[in-house]
Amino acid sequence: MAITYDESKKIFTLTTNNSEYQMKVDDIGLLLHTYYGKPVYGTDMSYQIVPVDRGFSGNLYEYRMDRGRSIDTLPQEFSGCGMGDYRISSVAVKAKNGSRTCDFRYKSHSIKEGKPSIPGLPSVRPCDDEVSTLVITLEDRLTGLEAELFYSVFMDKDIITRHTRFVNASDNGMILEKAASMMLDLQYGEWDEIHFAGRHCMERSVQRNRLSQDIRVISSKRGMSSHHQNPFVILCDHTATEESGSCFGMMLMYSGNHKTEIEQDQAGAVRIVSGINDENFSWNLKSGESFDTPEVIMAYSAIGLSALSHLYHRIIRENVCDRKYLDMKRPVLINNWEATYFDFNSDKIIDIAKTASELGVEMMVLDDGWFGKRDDDNSGLGDWLVNERKLPGGLRRITDEVTKMGMKFGLWFEPEMVNEDSGLFRTHPEWALRDPGRNPNLSRNQMVLDMSNSEVVDYLFDCMKKVLDSADISYIKWDFNRSVCNVYSNALEPSRQGEVAHRFMLGTYSLLDRLTKAYPDLMIEGCAGGGGRFDAGMMYFCPQIWCSDDTDAIERLEIQEGTSFGYPVSTMGSHVSAVPNHQTGRTTPLSTRGVVAMSGTFGYELDITKLTDEEKSTIKEQIKTFNRLYPLIQKGTYYRLSQGDQSEIYKAWEFVAPDGSEALINIVLKKSQANARIKNVHLKGLCADAMYRLEGTEQVLSGAALMYGGYAINLSSGDYSSAQLHFIKTT
User: Fold this and answer.
1) In the 8-state DSSP scheme, what is residue 331?
2) Catalytic residue among 420, 615, 621, 695
3) Whose CA is closest to 720, among 590, 622, 571, 614?
4) Which residue in 236, 285, 445, 709 is a FRET match for 339, CA 20 to 30 A apart?
5) Given the residues 261, 416, 535, 654, the one annotated as active site
6) DSSP readout, 561-615?
7) What domains can be seen in the chain, in order of their start residue?
8) How far apart are CA 724 and CA 300, in angstroms?
């Protein structure tokens, strides 16, 4: 069974195919974390908790005569606060009498088949998996606060999901000031933490740091998961590589303010706490009410970082994104943004679509500028009415023409934003997030709508519904182009302003949920200035997300590789853009731009009508290649092949069919060198005793030769050259 409870030893054991997770209730009701790692076949791992009397680590009253057992040193499953555990806490609460102490003890548990949803929040879908769920209830007997710890075990996928429900079981109100989704205590090991940091136009760069006795914080308070700190963290052996070492992943399924804290304490033990960012957070919890936290997707690999990535890729493709997209061919699209920006009309868009359709492009996406008074980014947001000065005849004229070409049509929205210069703001200034009596901070001359207000959500749904019903629209690009501040809602009383940021996300999720249910065939691509909301929470509604506003192929090598540690290629929006690149000014070959963009959902973002016949011919072949290799790229096992110093010179990555029948190797030269060394790339995931032919040649090599000897590639000449090698199993 995936979940067992040993009544005599009071041990909970969660088992997946390749991992075991263990907790134990001690003799005074503390829930201790005893193990997470490779299977130990039910051994009581509490023998590793060695009593030590450490100075300035006090004892709970029951342990006053046993100084070796301190709540400050014991590995716990979910800590309280204010009782003498001086490490980072899972909860902060203010009781009616002003007390801020919480002493969680075991109360009860239940084990159920299946997996419950989380009210108002996205969560991993059980689909057709065999899933079991354990709910452990902890209680603070004095205040009446209960913490229900949810653990859902996907045995065959080596995944455990966690979230917490806080319940006020008292007769009095209380205020939650911190509400973590999960905590993990590891007593032993030499660990590195890996997180994914960056900025707008350079998201999710890999940051790997050795842990020492300190506290690390990976967080966002920007009202979105952010370009700067992704809500995904890895803890791995200091010596871990792509193929070896223990690795733990914690991915928060949330698109708003988040925080993951990692502390190594005086004894070398490590604690990880993850959930909603508690800065400026408070939640009024009345008697009988409950509060649900976002879900964390946990995974463990004993064989390195690649295997950990594969676990996340699978669970996101199959259980986070809507299952209907698992085998659905995503259309190759062209977006007009970098081709026209705001300067377009119907004829220009139709011309782009016509040329694109002749080359095999399958969808035309009309970006910002089609609505309201919108000739730049200073006005119009919130007024979701077609600008018929630009688009006479409305959207239907364009969609009818595009449909005749055999293409689909997509449209850009930025629902959660409003310009001061807009009809919506003039009518409903109280719908914007802003402090009373204070001029707001503006970014791109726009403010953020109060998505915590149900009237705002209803307005946006009605507006978007009218647009979607007016023409044949099968795709939305959903943007979010500024960080959130002045977080004050006119719809909530002063004592509840600490709830606004989370209620904002609940409102956004509600709108997405309503749209996907009303339009089940509508595909939504997430975007927040590119990768500002590239997270599993958005992927529940959006099977793909614009990976970054940086479309430069060489910059994208770093962005897409960092993203690949937690997220599958099928979620990465990636386009071929014009050169010189609009963000960097760099000129790269069209072939290289194609190789990089094919490792994503694939499309184009340039004025295709201005290309030469040779360039158009290249694009036509790129689309044919992508469509032919689509199943391998989108569903194949992904490997990062370039490591160490060589990654500064070139990047290489691979897709392998699950049965090892074929493999696609991509390699891009980042730095040309005189008299350069040959690049020797070792393939992965092949059948060692099988033979493979390199497509387009008569060369046949064994899987063992390609994996252990490698394949030598000469990319020494020219700027940013690339190669794409397709090996097909022959025997």
Assistant:
1) P
2) 615
3) 590
4) 445
5) 535
6) HHHHTTS-GGGEE-EEE-SS-TTT-----HHHHHHHHTTTT-EEES-GGGS-HHH
7) 3-189+280-288+296-320 (2.70.98.60), 324-635 (3.20.20.70), 639-729 (2.60.40.1180)
8) 32
Print burial letters for 400-439: b (CB count within 10 Å at least 16), e (below 16): ebbbebebbbbbbbbbbbbbbbbbbbeebeebbbbeeeee
Quick check: is 193 catalytic? no
**What letter represents residue 643's amino acid?**
Q
Q: How far apart are the first and last CA of the chain?
A: 39
Go through 357-381 and write b for each residue having 16 or more CB atoms within 10 A of its CB, e for each that does not. bebebbbbbbbbbbbbbbeebebbb
pLDDT > 70: percent of the chain? 99
Q: How confident is the model at residue 647 (pLDDT cuts 50, 70, 90)?
A: confident
| Nearest partner of 571 among 361, 407, 326, judged by Cα | 326
Q: What residues contact residue 61 under an 8 Å CB cut-off, 6+ apart?
A: none
pLDDT of residue 624: 98
Q: HSE on the CB side for 281, CA within 13 Å? A: 27
Is the pLDDT reported for residue 646 higher than 70?
no
pLDDT digit string, tens, across residues 286-329: 999 999 999 999 999 999 999 999 999 999 999 999 999 999 99
Helix axes 346-359, 394-404, angle to 10 degrees: 20
> Which tokens sit at 530?
């590119």
pLDDT per residue over 587-624, tens digit each? 999 999 999 999 999 999 999 999 999 999 999 999 99
> Would residue 535 show up in a list of annotated catalytic residues for this protein?
yes
